[in-house]
Amino acid sequence: MKRIAFISGITGQDSSHLAEFLLEKNYKIYGLIRRSSTDNTWRIKNILDRIELITGDLTDQASLDKAIKLTQPDEVYNLGAMSFVKVSWDNPEYTFNVNAIGVIRLLEAIKNFGKQDTRIFQASSSEMFGKVQETPQNEFTKFYPRSIYGVSKCAGHWIAINYRESYNMFICCGISFNHESYRRGLEFVSRKISYGVAKIYLKMADYIELGNLEAKRDFGYAPEFVEAFWRMLQLDKPDDFVLATGENHSIREFVKTAFECVEIHNWQDYIKQNPKYMRPAEIDYLLGDSRKAQKILGWKSKTSFQELIYLMVNSDIERLKRGDKIE
Description:
Number of helices: 10
Low-confidence stretches: none
Shape: globular
Largest sheet: 7 strands, parallel
Helix content: 25-40%
């Protein structure tokens, strides 16, 4: 019998990479997708004929109850979220509704209508560390979120732990630091840079507008992170893990490296800083300590910072050359 996986947020970056990974392991996959008037399945178009989509929403308890009752998954990956940090200040109530209360709704659906031994992965975030209290950050570092997104993720994280301890549910939380790929949304700074560089290289644009260039992040490669999500659910007992590369780089370094991919060295001439892209409360420095994941999961990030950016820039160049719709 195939194992059954249920993935919320199936149209997102992580979910698309995870679905491909699980298909290679012969899983039957159900993906939760919100009802929408526009098609947002571009990340999973190559596997649409191999997965089954279930209409539902983390803000709608009835739809989650129905989805879990119908699919009876062995593993649930909660990757659905309002994930763009900047927008969380503009829509704080919705952000909290999805990222925190949505976790309660999904866990209630699993508790009431799922299998007794269903295993659950909750996507937590390095944004929970915010104004960091120690460096590097590990599983015991105190949280100090600096955005509504970070606060909502803290709530979702502790809700998951509470359900694990209260109801003996198998729930693992992955505290993932920045993980990027060519499937990142254009609203995220990493993809905004790679896409902007590709357009400048092809003489389709003159500059990129960015905010704070000095913030430092721990950048990894998304397809490697989703393997760690799966490895957590194969453990004998549930636990929480920091997932990170163990090195960090500034946005300035990211920009410089992206331009170097196309042999443009006067990159400063193509950057305009715009205050509207500044966060109300910035996180200056994130650096993850993933030694626990290395020891227990046997997981380690392999793709270098330079390789990651090369993959993203070249993917965007090829898409633009083909005239693909860019999303």
